[in-house]
């Protein structure tokens, strides 16, 4: 299998990281990171706390200098042309803060003036953006009175006011209720699709990332251990080609178990205990097959006279991918398999 | 390669660009890029900071204290001047300046109030300049905008200094106006100039404390720590430092019968120690500016004053006399700013 850390660019790349490394004393926060993000895509940087996601983002913005390696954002070097990079990139830090004694509009106008926008132009854009992120009612409300979800929306507006080419969102969904998360992600998705924005978002919430990201990178202990879209990651996961079929049925018999186990293509059979099987209750069995044997298994169960309650072919979600990559930190083991 | 070096290059580039703009507007210069009606990020921050200070409770309270103190000092000065002129003891030259330096003993003079409360205002305006932004989580958002890091702390400093200048000048001129009304004695142009210069020195002095507290706000994450460090240094220099130098003076003083050169050397050494304190430098500079009769700040031998006529110094000579003190204060301010700049450049900006 080819190394998972290589993400070959297919279109115009906006962010290009080459062997990016950051060390804090003895500790390596980011280790030899190679990553390419294309124009217009939504990329999810996924990893547990302390994996080096924020450090990577800071290096992309020139807010901290890499120990070695190079970063290129919109064709510019963030360490040397920090100002030009910051003009093109909107960054929303995790746990974003605003001037609490100023109104939402004032906060946005300040950002606009820092980006050299005219007063009137900035005001128009700020009002339009506030409306778009759903804060149209709270324009003249002080930012200190905002709830967590409102602050994040205001953060999105704040990022967009400078008309960026790239938007970097660090943990945008942290601490928001599920409905708020859904709306926020929808907003990000719409923005990316309608305005052709490149979005890089970091998170440790798999499901959320799964919903909107075109590609995800799994980031553990400073290393990118896997990269690609969700289906291809799932493919990478069951690269031994096995398919897992789960069966629930009542009226289980020992003969059925034998027939299932001896079914063609079944590698492993994990069935209920014989005692439980004879009691007539609903039993749970798992078949690990070399190919898709779902229908064959269903046919076997029904033919043997048992009542089939449920059968499903297990799909790998990001959760499983995440779990399998992260459990025991066996990243190298997986990569080199 | 850090932002530090990039910024240094940036500053240089900007400076040369500004210079070139003066002659031929270059197509790549920031000035040419910036349209009319927009402000530079630097002035945008200054404007916001100035507004924040003006609206803050902290500033209101401090202003109240200082205004009350000044009213008290005017009262004391006016009483002293009236008593003095009635008994014909004081000489009438530069009577107007005595509004700032005279007191009937019940309350300290205006100068003393400024030298004591001014630093407090500087510390109050600067102690949470950077760390509060850091703790509120606005620093990383702010620095991800296209602004230089140097501009950020310079703007913080400039906004607070501007406010201090406005406060001190308006206080000084109010005292002059009140004095004019109460004692009915108009100032000469030289006196107005002397007062303006004194206020300028006061702004620089308060600016030093402001810069020191900004330095602390970069060093310490907690606002309380940086405020306490600033106040501790302020108390040390305005109260304890003179006591300590007094102690050293007593302990190391040569016998009265020692040779003249030994005594002179000791005196000069003590003066040098005293002058390490910005408060002492300020008091020397202001006394020269506000009391034209002060002819020297160092020791004078009897031979030197033997044939001298005790007349007030002209303005230019007074300025010349206080010039080293002024430069010393400016240098201390610059050192603080340089340190804060260097520290801030190397800091990593994380959210909270």
Topology:
The complex is a heterodimer of chains A (337) and B (352).
Chain A: E1 13-24, E2 27-38, E3 42-46, H1 53-61, E4 68-73, H2 82-88, E5 89-92, H3 104-114, H4 119-132, H5 148-160, E6 166-170, H6 178-195, E7 198-203, H7 206-212, E8 215-220, E9 223-228, H8 230-237, E10 243-250, H9 254-261, E11 266-270, H10 274-278, E12 283-289, H11 294-303, E13 307-313, H12 318-326, H13 331-335
Parallel strand pairs in A: 3-7, 3-8, 5-6, 6-7
Antiparallel strand pairs in A: 1-2, 1-4, 8-9, 10-12, 10-13, 11-12
Chain B: H1 3-23, H2 30-33, H3 41-55, H4 57-86, H5 98-101, H6 110-126, H7 131-136, H8 138-143, H9 149-183, H10 189-219, H11 223-252, H12 260-274, H13 278-290, H14 302-305, H15 315-346
Describe the structure in your own words.
Chain A is of the alpha/beta class. Chain A folds into two domains: 13-237, P-loop containing nucleotide triphosphate hydrolases (Rossmann fold); 243-313, Alpha-Beta Plaits (2-Layer Sandwich). Chain A contains 13 helices and 13 strands. Chain A has helices at residues 53-61, 82-88, 104-114, 119-132, 148-160, 178-195, 206-212, 230-237, 254-261, 274-278, 294-303, 318-326, 331-335, and strands at 13-24, 27-38, 42-46, 68-73, 89-92, 166-170, 198-203, 215-220, 223-228, 243-250, 266-270, 283-289, 307-313. In chain A, the strands form three sheets. Chain A has a six-stranded mixed β-sheet, with helices on both faces. In chain A, β8 and β9 (223-228) form a beta hairpin. Chain A is elongated. Mean pLDDT of chain A is 81; it is low at 1-7 and 328-337. With 352 residues, chain B is mainly alpha-helical. Chain B has one domain (30-299, 308-346). In chain B, α4 (57-86) packs parallel to α9 (149-183), α10 (189-219) packs across α11 and α10 runs antiparallel to α13 (278-290). The radius of gyration of chain B is 24 Å and the shape is globular. Chain A binds chain B through residues 54, 58, 61-65, 77, 79-84, 86-87, 89-101, 110-111, 113-119, 155, 158, 162, 170, and chain B through 1-3, 6-7, 10, 34-35, 37-41, 44-45, 48, 52, 55, 136-148, 348-352.
